Amino acid sequence: MLHPITTTHYLVLGAALLAIGTIGVLARRNIVVILMAIELILNAVNINLIAFSHHLGQVHGQVFAIFVITVAVAEAAVGLGILIALFRTRSTVQADEINLLKW
Amino acid sequence: MWADTFFFYLFALVTLGGAMLTITRRNAVHCAMSLILSLIGVAGLFLLQRAEFLFAVQIVLYVGGIMVLFLFVIMLVNLDQAARMRQFSGQWWLALACVLAVAAQIVYVLVRGSQAFRFARPEPAAQGGNVERVADVLFKQYLLPFELASLLLLAAIVGSVIMARKRI
User: Fold this and answer.
1) Of A23, A78, A83, the CB nearest to B95
2) Average pLDDT by consecutive 10-residue portion of chain A (103 residues)?
3) Which residues of A are less than 8 Å from B5 in CB distance?
4) How many CB atoms within 10 Å of residue B123?
5) What is the total count of domains within chain B?
6) Does residue B54 form part of some domain?
7) Arithmetic mean of pLDDT over chain B
8) Is the pLDDT reported for residue B153 higher than 90?
9) Does residue B67 share a domain with residue B9?
10) What part of B 107-146 touches A (C-beta under 8 Å)?
11) Contact B61 A81 (CB under 8 A)
12) Residues of chain B contacting residue A23, judged by C-beta atoms under 8 Å apart
């Protein structure tokens, strides 16, 4: 079960990384760390794509992983820009202190 | 064969350990350093599966680009006060329970259904190296998504510049 590394090993690893990233998004208060946890989730997706690409002997999964990385870059840039604007106006980076739309 | 097994568990340990440190450290700079460790582990996993181009992209783009962006923002935003406050929100136990339940289900399905992954025979290895094959598929079959990705990046550049201006 442990020795020959199969596709299932990579998929289980991806699921574990997804779980850790989701816990980070849901439970942390610091927005910078939440953005980092989103990067972890996108990396878990990439591990799955590459595992199936290797399993099927095609490179379509790797092309999709390139697109996922592109979206991750765009998300990080815009997210950090929003974070800077937020810090200027509210001077806090705690996710639960930004409750203007809450009632 | 044994080398593959050894390096898989080594990189898996680096990836998951770095991820755990990322979401538990108090100092945001330590979180970023742990995330770099985790991303390097993922890059090693890419290399193990013969995805050499993505290995290079992961190192150059994630570790070299995105993490420098994160570190710059950590320096710009004053996080000293945040580091002294409570790190986890009030419902962290609920999040932990739900995520662990979902992860256990996913792992159970994956392990039970691992025999079902024989849905397609692997194609015989194509000619050329990994970079040539990726470029072939990317520029022939996925040309439109490739161009749309450049549009997305343009929108992201404009958006982040406008967001980071003094007065919005």
Assistant:
1) A23
2) 80 94 92 93 95 88 93 92 88 84 79
3) 2-5
4) 9
5) 2
6) yes
7) 87
8) yes
9) yes
10) 107, 110-111, 114, 117, 120, 122-125, 130, 133-134, 136-138, 141-142, 145
11) no
12) 23, 95-96, 99
Q: Which chain A positions have a beta carbon within 8 Å of B49's beta carbon?
A: 10, 50-51, 53-54
- Residue B153's Cβ-side half-sphere holds a number of Cα atoms within 13 Å equal to 11
Classify residue B145: in a domain, yes or no: yes
Phi, psi (deg, nearest 5) at residue A13: -60, -40
Q: At what angle do helices B28-48 and A31-56 cross, to 10 degrees?
A: 0
Within a domain: B1? yes
What ipTM, to 2 d.p.?
Answer: 0.91
Query: Any CB–CB contact under 8 A between B104 and chain A?
Result: no
B6 and B80 in a common domain: yes
Mean pLDDT, to the nearest integer, of B46-62? Answer: 91
Does one domain contain both B70 and B134?
A: no
DSSP for B32-79, written as a single string: HHHHHHHHHHHHHHHHHTT-HHHHHHIIIIIIIIIHHHHHHHHHHS--
Domain of residue B145, residue span: 130-168
Q: Report all structural domains of chain A as residue ranges with CATH numbers, in order of start.
A: 30-91 (1.10.287.3510)
Distance in Å, alpha carbon of A100 to nearest chain B alpha carbon: 18
- Decide if B60 is inside a domain: yes
Q: Identify which has the larger pLDDT, B9 or B76.
A: B9
Residues of A in contact with B156 (CB under 8 A): 73-75, 77-78
pLDDT value at residue B120: 58
